[in-house]
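Late entry, evening session. Most of the bench is empty. Finally got around to the prediction I had been postponing all week. Sequence below, unchanged from the version circulated by S.P.
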Amino acid sequence: MDTTYEQDSEVNEEYVNMPVIRNVMMKREYGGKPLKCIVVGFGLLCILQAILNVSLRLYSQTYQTDESDKSMNLMGENTKQDWLYFNNTFYLMSSTMKSWKDSREDCLQRNADLVVINSREEQDFIMRWHIESWIGLSIRGTEGNWEWVDGTSITLSYWEVGEPNRYKQEEDCVEVGNNNWADVSCNDLNLWICEKKASPTAPIEAGLSQQGWRRFGHSFYFFSVRKLNWEGSRNECLQRKADLVVINSRREKEFTSSIGKHWIGLSDRETEGEWKWVDGSGLTFRNWGKDEPDGGDKIEECAEQHGRELPQIWNDDFCNRPNFWICEKAAGMEPLEGDLYPDDP
């Protein structure tokens, strides 16, 4: 009985356990391999997706960097050629005189065109030269309408009183003078202003030249586009980690006289009659006009410099009078090839 019970138990144990073993074997044989393939495949897809994401990011960054470098190189080249940067646009004032047509041809050869004035701010910026020069406005077409070189019509204008008068029907081109526009003969010889847009992808805040600073010798210079009193002008410079310009040579005087009348960093506010620069130094180079400084009853304590259209001299004036200004900061590096050196006394 005992033996039989044990045998039956063994038989029953084997019989009961066999389906369990078979079930496990079937799972391993028919279900395990597809599951493993799915897991491995999903893992490979994740890896491929990660590689694709990294590749796209690197491509995007590389493309943006290349475009940024191109923009910065373009801006660097422009500033070396005396282009001025204002409101995402470069401007160049010529140093020779030509007819309107030849002036435009010169601009086109520079991948630019004669300036198109579309705002009060741009007009004020152009006015800083205070020199008669061609702009990109002329009589176009058979109907005799005034049109810009980009094909647009006038949306705002700054004509001088009595202009345009098209005297003898021969004045078909426009020059900008000290304050406003006038129509003159296109064959007249004149200075001119070229304009070209900066790339919209240019990193404007990266680098001094992109912020409107100009390199000259061992310094960078910033020419303002709005007027403030002397103290306000100096504060603007200090906020830019600079100060009002200190002029120590004839060449520096000529460079800073290229645009309009402006404040310089010279005053006798501390001691009447003792003129000092904002860096505390005295005058080693003088450029006063005749009978200047005259003191103005001891209330003209700040110095301004006249622009190119007037004798490039200094004049003492009321410190509260609004004026353009020039900031200066040390370049912090050796002058680059092609820089102008203010090395004469």
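Two things to note before I forget:
The first helix runs from residue 2 to 80.
Residues 1-31, 58-80, 201-210, 333-345 have pLDDT under 50 and may be disordered.
Will write this up properly tomorrow.
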